[in-house]
Fold this sequence. Notes:
Elements: E1 3-6, E2 10-16, E3 19-20, E4 24-26, H1 28-36, E5 43-50, H2 55-63, E6 66-67, E7 71-74, E8 81-86, E9 93-99, E10 119-122, H3 127-136, E11 143-147, H4 150-155, H5 157-164, E12 169-173, H6 174-181, H7 186-196, E13 200-204, E14 210-214, E15 217-221, H8 235-250, H9 255-272, H10 279-283, H11 286-299
Parallel strand pairs: 1-5, 1-10, 2-8, 5-6, 5-7, 10-11, 11-12, 12-13
Antiparallel strand pairs: 2-3, 2-4, 8-9, 13-14, 14-15
Bound molecules: adenosine monophosphate.
Adenosine monophosphate (AMP) is lined by residues 8, 10, 12, 26-28, 82, 98, 124-125, 151, 233-237.
Amino acid sequence: MRLVTVGSVAFDAIETPFGKTDKIVGGAGTFISLSSSFFVKNQGIISVVGDDFPKQTLAEMQDRGIDLNGLQIKEGEKTFFWSGKYHNDMNSRDTLITELNVLEHFDPIVPEEYQGANYLMLGNLSPQVQRTVIERMRNRPKLIAMDTMNFWMDIAWDELMKTLSLVDVLIINDEEARQLTKEYALVRAAKKIKQMGPKYVIIKKGEHGALLFYDNDIFFAPALPLEEVFDPTGAGDTFAGGFMGYIASTDDCSFQNMKRAVVAGSALASFSVEKFGTERLNEITRNDFEKRMQEFVMLTDFEFNTLN
Ligand code: AMP
């Protein structure tokens, strides 16, 4: 296995200024693994669902090359449920409901065939579960990336700090970076986060792109300006999956390659927001992706001649 993802596999109910969904398939682990499956075929997911989770979705994930031996199905229990409502600018949202259900007592299992994976993506889940997975991998992966959110900062701060100290890359949004560091300026926030453990910090700024910090270097990738953003749910996870999938498939952890990975993540996220849930991610082809990467190249291409 080249890449292992840990993260929620869930039901979401989403309300945006453009519409509302009943329970649809979501979850950080779902978005991440679907997104990284674009680049990596031999990957596995560690998660848990109840027996109410659609078997067809699981079959579709397997069709995309996602191994499900690490996904536990709990008979008689309910899948994690999250509900959120977006504000008019679509950049911010309120969580309406978080029902942990099967996640409450989740004990992650690392299947034998996942041992030795070089890349580990810890998607949004309790920091204790994220750490347990690190501890249960017999060899430390070459690169461990992690996502988290305000929910865990509020209820599991100490656990979060411990897990953070063990990872290489933290991928979070601007609001979360500010909450984590109590710093408003993101450059300062990134510096503080690096003192907490990760060498690399990626701060996502929604429709305003993403920043990658390493040492004293900063790289910025814009988000693609879109005419219509339908549902931003999972955009952050899609970004993380694209980033990690790209790194894992190229097996290159240099800063130069991370820059390309950030743009690859941004490109996949730009598709994800075009429809509700995972719908758009399931449709796009390699050709769509390549074209969008070229749009990113064009978007940031300019010349500058030194003033005389
Ligand atoms: P994003 O829009 O990238 O921040 O991710 C949204 C996804 O995160 C949704 O599909 C939710 O199911 C999932 N999610 C929301 N809250 C949590 C939580 N506390 N733990 C794990 N996953 C969550």
